[in-house]
Amino acid sequence: MENLSLMFAPLVSSKLMIVLVFGTLFGLILGVLPGLGPTTGGALILPFTMTLDPLSAIVLLTAIYCSATYGGAITAVLINTPGTPAAAATCLDGYPLAQKGEAGRALGMATVSSTIGGIFSVIVLVFFAPLLAKLAYEFGQPEYFALAIFGLTMLASIGEGSPIKNLIAGAFGILISTIGKDFMTSIERFTYGINELSEGIGFIPVVVGLFAISEMLTQSTSLDQIFKRVALKAVKLPSILDYKKTWKTILRSSGIGSFIGVLPAEGGTVASLIGYSEAKRWSKNPEEFGKGSVEGIAGAEAANNAATGGAMVPTLALGIPGSATTAVILTGLIIHGVRPGPDLFKEQPEFLYGIFGSMLIANILFFIFGFFGAKIFARITLVPNKLLWPMIFAVSVCGTYSLSQSILDVWIMLFFGVIGFFMRRYGFSVVPVIIGLILGELVEGTLRQSLVIFEGNWLLFLTRPIVVTFFILSFIALIFPLLRKKKSNE
Amino acid sequence: MNNVQKQKRANKSLPFFFKDEFKVSFIIILISTILLISTFSFDIVPPILNRGIQPATFPKGLLVLIIILTSIVYYLSIKKPWEIKKKLPQPFFLTLLSFIFFIFISKTLDFFLAISLLSVFVSYCWGERRVFYLILVSIIFPIIVFIFFETILGLRFPPGIITNIYYQV
Questions:
Q1: B51: distance to nearest CA of chain A, Å?
Q2: Is the pTM of this model over 0.80?
């Protein structure tokens, strides 16, 4: 109870409130612009967080995460292009409804269901994260290894791309983490005499390259694309009839989104797709889906925003990212000297509950900004790509250079930009690379330490019940996409 | 017959080594094999200092996994060929070229100049012809970013012909 009161610390700190307002507005802009999103935006703003104290820095990143996830819906409804991948399912019904002259109603439903989904997930975060952290006290090195393996196998069902391609991308991410001096023996690996590579490849150049630069190259291939924007007078709050029609869907999708978010590596994209399909399955009017159903909008939007709080659960309690954006937040925590995990809950409750509270406030703030300012934010989409992307390039280059003041980092960013472009072109999602990169050191470190404990006997992994449970879950995570595919073929 | 159908028909008659699925799988397997071979040159830790496994073992395992998974992807693509991709347009190659120039100019002349030239080049290649906007993206915006990073973050940019003037070197 005492800890819960710490949640409202941001409300009494003017500095935190300013950071929250700025983060929410910036997140909305990122969400509205197709191609940018919370992951790229978080990575770009990470260098600026160095000027802030750790709590303000993480509050900024989480505010961006919450509001950018919602912001994607504005573009999805008005121009039929998801501002973020998590808003893809929102296009299916948001745009048709907007075309019927009800853009305000569509955006109103998206705003309300996003806010409820987001707040629901913060409640899940507040109660579930400490429980998971308590459970993690039982974890030794073998358990963390098995957990990380579970996180990586979850990449198979990440939603974008084929399961096997996702696993290849995940393995590639782990491989990148092995570049540089081996952290246990200081033996150089894949450095080929380049001294700067001894310290390994930084997370930010890879993220900015894979997301921002590869998107810039993607944009260069579709310059003739013309967006048709539906006119919007004002955002309308849903009517009582709409509430009656959707309240069950919103609650169900909030639960689904929070659960999917808690699963390592799964994020808002998977959550919104499942939230949408479940809304359709349970609906009394499934035939309306795809033609402008408010239930469809509510199902997708409540789920993707509910995934934000859910994804923070494993990130804070275990140090395992729940999504690509939480991988950036995890990096932010590490840069600021905060080690996520069970000890954090014991030693710095004011820090954690400050984050929980700020996420709650961010959800309320984006409701206000979205409700009154969606029309203005929608105008941002009018900035032409030929001006926008060179500017993003300048910020990407300076942001990447600034972290360790290394020109090599900028070149690495460009290199990964090109790799990311070709990966996306041939159906490989770039998200697993990020998750693999951040989990790589944990996987290798815990594997090697476990083998030291077991004196090299691999079979001893199977003597620990939690490890066996995670291995079984990993197996299920691997075969689940295949079963799903087989079922859909039938 | 639309362009995609034309391309599909053309792709059917292509020898297997010209198809995307083969090219992509081949490149991944080739690079992985080269990297795998290079892991054999990693230093070996004496048994007394060894922590669990040799430093080369983990990357070796990963590379073997990538090779196996890529082979599966290729095998599956024989049954179900990949979607045909549209040819990459000229602005893509020009953008890619600008990256190469960026690396060259930032290394030899000036970091700021490289950002500026890339911005104007990309903007122009993507269709911008209005002089004011070209100046905005190539000069005004990079200056704002430069000063912002320099003053807020206390960042010192690498030396070059323009940055040296700014730093009065």
A1: 6
A2: yes
